[in-house]
Amino acid sequence: MRLLVLYQARDAIRDHPGYHDGFQRLLAEGALSAHVAMPYYRISASRGWIALWDEACAAARKMGADAVFLQFFHGPIPDPSEGIRRIRNLPNKPTVFTSLGDPFGRWTKRVPECFRVASKLSDVTFLTGMGFIARQLVGCGSTNLVLMPHGCCQVRFASSPIPTSDPPDFDVVFIGGRNQSRNPLGHVFWVSRLRAALVKAFSKRYGRRFGLFGNGWNGNASWQGSIPFADQHEAYRKSAVVLGGMPGSFNDYYMSDRPFIAIASGVPLVDYWVHGVDLILEPKRDVRLERSIREMLILCDQLLEMASSDRVRLGLEARERVLAHHTQYHRCAEMIDVVKTLREARLSGRNAPEPILRFLSDAKAAVSAPDAIVAWKR
Predict the structure, then answer these.
(1) How many helices (H) and strands (E) does the chain have?
(2) Which H/E stretch holds residue 34?
(3) Are strands 210-213 and 2-7 parallel, antiparallel or unpaired?
(4) SS (H, E, C) 62-93
(5) Which of 291, 281, 290 is nearest to 318 (CA)?
(6) pLDDT tens digit string along 27-86?
C-alpha cells in the first residue's frame, strides 16, 4: 500500500515522531510500499489551504497513492470538502481515512465542523473515544467509525529505567495542567473541578511526598513546576506510584496518551475509571482504575504498603505489555490493516467484515466490544 499522510504538524518528524516512525517501520517491514509525509499546518500557514490541497493531490497522483490519511484533522481548518473530493477523484481512487485525537464534549466544545465534514467524506474514521462522539458523527452522516486509542510514543518513551537502590523522591507523582473554564454548562468546567479536587486531596494526604507537575498549580506546596512533554518519564521515575488525571472527556473508551506514557515509565499507575478503558488496559495488571478520589487514595496507599521489589515488578511487567501492544507504531499497523482490508474488499467487489481490534485486552472483546465499531458499511 502506498500511503500519503497529511500530518497535523509543522514538522512531521518533530511533532509526531511516534507516528512517523511507525509508518516508516511498516515501510521497512513491507506492510507499506511507500510513505510520504506532508505537514498540513506548515504548508497551509505559508501558502494557504488551496495550495495545501493542490500539493496533496499532486503528491498522491505522483506516488500513485492507495490511501491518504488525514491525521487528527481538527483545528483551525476551513471547509475541506473540495480538497477531499479532489483526492477521492484521482485516477487511483485513494481510500481516505481520518482520525480524531482531542477530547470533545457532548453539548459544548463539540467536534468541529471541519472534522465532521472530513469524517463524512472518509472511508474510515478512527476515534480515540466512542459513545456520544460516535453518535454525533453518525448524525452528521459518517460511517465506518472505529475505535483507535492513543498510544505511547515509542520514539520518546521506550528507554529502559536505570536500576537503582535509592528510595524514590516522591510517594505519588501527578503530571497535568490546571485547565479552567467559567462556563458551568461546559464539560471542561466539571472536568477541571474534578482535577482540582483530585490534586487538593492528594496534596493534603501526601504533602511534599506528592510530586505535582504542570501549569496552573501556583501556591500548592506540592507543586514542582511544569515539565517538558518529552521529559515525563524523568518525573514518573522519581516516584513509587503514578497518579493519572481526570480525562479531558468522559466519552466511552477515551484516554489521552498520558496513561500509556505513564505505564511505559515502569511505575504502577492509578487512574480514574472511564467506561470501556478496562477493555483496553487490563485492570490490576496494566493499570489500577477507580471511580472516586477516595478510592484512588486507598489504592495508592495499598501500593505504597507493598514491598518495593513487588511494586517495581508490577510496574515493569505492565511497561513491557504497553511497549509490546500499545505504542503509536502498533496503532499505525492496526489502522493500515483495517484500511487495506477494506480497500481490497471494495476493489474486488466483496463486503469487508468488521475489523477485529487487536488492542483490546480481552479475547472476547477483541471480537465484539460494545460500540467499539459503529455504523460499519461494508
Answers:
(1) 14, 12
(2) strand 34-39
(3) unpaired
(4) HHCCCEEEECCCCCCCCCCHHHHHHHHCCCCC
(5) 281
(6) 999 999 999 999 999 999 999 999 999 999 999 999 999 999 999 999 999 999 999 999
Measured in degrees and rounded to the nearest 5, phi and psi for residue 59 equal -65, -45
Q: What is the distance between the alpha carbons of residues 182 and 171, in angstroms, rounded to a whole number? A: 33
- Whether residue 148 contacts residue 98, with contact meaning beta carbons closer than 8 Å, is answered with no
Residue position matching grid coordinates 506516488: 63
The answer to whether the pTM exceeds 0.85 is yes
> How distant is the alpha carbon of residue 144 from its chain centre?
19
Question: Of the candidates 42, 10, 5, which has an alpha carbon nearest to the alpha carbon of residue 21?
Answer: 5
The three three-digit cell numbers of residue 223, written as one number: 507543586
- Beginning with the edge strand found earlier in the chain, give each strand of the sheet holding 239-243 in spatial order: 210-213, 170-175, 239-243, 269-272, 288-290
| Cβ-Cβ contacts under 8 Å for 344 (sequence gap 6 or more) | none
* 3-state secondary structure (DSSP) of residue 223: strand
Q: What is the pLDDT of residues 245-289, one digit of tens each?
A: 777 677 899 999 999 999 999 999 999 999 999 999 999 999 999
Short-list 298, 311, 250, 257, CA closest to 281: 257
Other C-beta atoms closer than 10 Å to the C-beta of 343 total 20
Joined grid coordinates for residue 298: 486507598
Confirm if 311 and 240 have CB atoms less than 8 A apart: yes
For residues 22 and 156, is the Cβ–Cβ distance under 8 A?
A: no
User: What is the 8-class DSSP label of residue 46?
Assistant: H
Residue with cell 510514543: 153
